[in-house]
Fold each of these.
Amino acid sequence: MAAAATLRLTIPLAFSFSIHPLTSSHLRFPASKSIGSEAASFRTVKMAATAGSDPETTSSTSRIIDSHLHIWASPQEAATYPYFPGQEPTLTGDVEFLLKNMEDARVDGALIVQPINHKFDHSLVTSVLKKHPSKFVGCCLANPAEDGSGIKELENLVLESNYRAVRFNPYLWPSGQKMTNAVGKAMFSKAGELGVPVGFMCMKGLHLHIAEIEELCTEFPNTTVLLDHAGFCKVPENGEAKDTYTQLIELSRFPQVYVKFSALFRISRTGFPYQDLTPLLSQVVSNFGANRVMWGSDFPFVVLECGYKEAKEAVTIIAKQASLSSSDMDWILGKTVMQLFPGQWVLP
């Protein structure tokens, strides 16, 4: 293992960040039509990419857990679970559609991240957590209201429902304020007290928020941190500076920081199976350790990008190219997130 780690460190790297907006321009209802036609275009690519690959990437007793996905109400459910004004979804993302995709891909469980489509109204996700308590864990959305009411909201969601993580979206903070303001620090500290990890969504670039993350990690070392989508560290073009990528890797010095190797389509510059991310995965595992790295799909957005099942296959292909061990893959595909939420998904 030591030799393998050394080899992985020698892979040349140059990573940077850019925005992959969740716009409606490339995602449309109804998914039943778009997804079928879109998936067909990937069939040939998938067959070529997976030829000769080993489908058995984990041990027979391992669970496959998706560390990052979203759900929202179907149009029929919207009367009961209304969308936040201006955030109406443009693709299918209801729980029944998710369950079908998970079954087809043989994914055993998932962490549901509260979507912006319902903003701070957690009633839909809460209902799903109650209906499927052994399959899903909830990640609520932090409300950084200046009156501090979000601190109590966080506590209630954790103690009264099956929410075991919280997402910090820096773009929801009041204009001109940072996640390190009084409310942000109070919520981050409360998360540590409650034993729930804080996920950071740095969609516009990790470099814009790295100082805040480092300050919070330093001041509150007992609060676990999840970096969504590898900090949105996108593969560079034309020799872009590696500064932001270096910042991502240097966060490994904080033992509380974990990396979601998720939403690969957002950080790759190639199509499925996103093999330009091989150096990134190799270096993240070498520096953080596989037990601090976890796979996530970013359902339902990934469905139109490559397909849900293919999202799981992609990380397997990348890991094989990076010469990761089967033990590493057990961690990345399930054990890491299971370690963070003990007792949630029980091994057979």
Amino acid sequence: MASEEVKTSESAVSKIVNLAEEAKLAKEEIKPTKYQLYSICKSLVAGGVAGGVSRTAVAPLERLKILLQVQNPHNIKYSGTIQGLKYIWRTEGFRGMFKGNGTNCARIVPNSAVKFFSYEQASKGILYLYRQQDGNEDAQLTPLLRLGAGACAGIIAMSATYPMDMVRGRITVQTEKSPFQYRGMFHALSTVLREEGFRALYKGWLPSVIGVVPYVGLNFAVYESLKDWLIKSKAFGLVGEDDELGVATRLACGAAAGTVGQTVAYPLDVIRRRMQMVGWNHAASIVTGDGRSKVALQYTGMIDAFRKTVRHEGFGALYRGLIPNSVKVVPSIAIAFVTYEQVKAVLGVEIRISD
């Protein structure tokens, strides 16, 4: 990962490193090599595989979380994790457990690829600036700088794939009783675009941007910082002879990172999902409450969504679905980090870069 010290020359292919880095490379007449381009492609593949594997592994919990977030408060069908999973299985069967996962993977594979790649490149750029400012060529990224790199990566990846996330949320909450069925991601995208306009594809984008800063930022910062601390301190005897952490230890670091990030950002995720449902013609029955809704599902913005949610359902509604999300996020983030590093190792991409 990008927490290790890096060579300045290996930042030549970065597209998001600041102008100062580009100027330095130009001055030194360093050009991208074929090896470096292959390395980038392999990193993107590793990030995509990591995202697809991790999300599929926890797809039932992901769907239940969204159902809990957006279900009509006057017609509760899902009251908890165990009950909710049983209800989905009883009413929709095995396929119901994975509804929306295809769209989610179609979104998360490019999202994860861009996110991991952007994080590595942003980290290199930030590290270069930090070393220039500090005057210490041996300086390393601090947890705060890692948080900033992670936040940049999260915003870039989320913005690039947000329309797919928006329609994924709607497809996920569809049930057999829904009056209108999206037949897939492309049908959903075209329908929303035709009926609600282009801006509808970015409903809930603002709380997503705000939420991604602590969520993705803390994920990377906590994960990288824990790894560095364990390697440097050799705490608990978890470091091998090659100064590398085992898979189980990295899983634990990823789990800790996921827990911290999702707890801080969760209310913004709830608001994002609810805003995505606004303006949906023939909305899913879980949203409308089978026609028995007492509160119109209309929000004029993020603040209005927060206000109405708390006023009509209480503060606890901002954490509705937190339990299945916690159960999901911990293994999901952990699997994603470890899969990413394992795939990079298989593809021959160096994870540790030394001076």
Amino acid sequence: MLQIRTPKTGRAKREVEKRAPKIVETGKKTLILHGTKTSQVLNTVLTEIYHLKKDNAVKYTRRNDNIRPFESGGETSMEFYSLKTDCSLIVFGSHSKKRPDNLVIARTYDHHIYDLVEVGIENFKSMVSFSYDKKLAPQIGSKPFFAFIGEGFENLEELKHLKEVLLDLFRGEVVTNLNLAGLDRVYVCTAVSSNRVFFTHCGLRLKKSGSVVPRMELVEVGPSMDLVVRRHRLPEDGLKKEAMKIAPELTKKKEKNVSKDAIEGKIGKIYMPDQQVGIVPLPNKAKGVKRERREAKMKGDTKKHEAKKQKLEA
């Protein structure tokens, strides 16, 4: 049986609380691993990915002989390192004759492999090869824009999966509001063919345009590379259903007969019961009835008075 050890010191308790599930999760940490053999190009790619995510990434430089993605039993070490470092994203680089400059991006759920995408790196250009004004260099931790150009990201399963993984890898913490002045970078992904994507990182320069919306200029700051999709594995249906669950605290209760409109705002519907006027009883002494009786009485008195006069004259 496994022994459950409870934290005894304050520091250990704080670390356990950080790793505990939260209603609103913070940004995902990324773990960078090396395979048995890596090329110089792949080492540079892994280093620059680490620099792009330096505020929320962990990098291991030791070679890992027992990590073999897409093979049974070859992902155990990845799950162990994910649990050890509390990272939900893993970038694994390896180089072989069959698959040169190979990069595997894995997502985990509850520190178990959720899905995998394997890409090959071609036409790589590092940050050093780009010359630009250093004032335009993006700040660490800033929120990026994403531009996915091409119909392949909507039609092809491989590119749709790659799009989801790249968004998870580089977007950082999910926020609801953004300051426009703090946006200083954009990732541009262009679908060149059915399995090739051109990926580049650009700095964002805001200029005056004579209106409220500023004019934007892109300055390529690197890295830049071609991503060739080789293999990918989608999550299992049961695991996907478990991962997509939403906490009850975050689900809003549906308001009956209430809708929202962009122009009119919040609109409510009121249902009135049928007014059956014919069945409603009238009061016994209505003003109209009183007036009719009074008039009838006055007519009756005048008739009696005239009859009495006629009798007295007779």
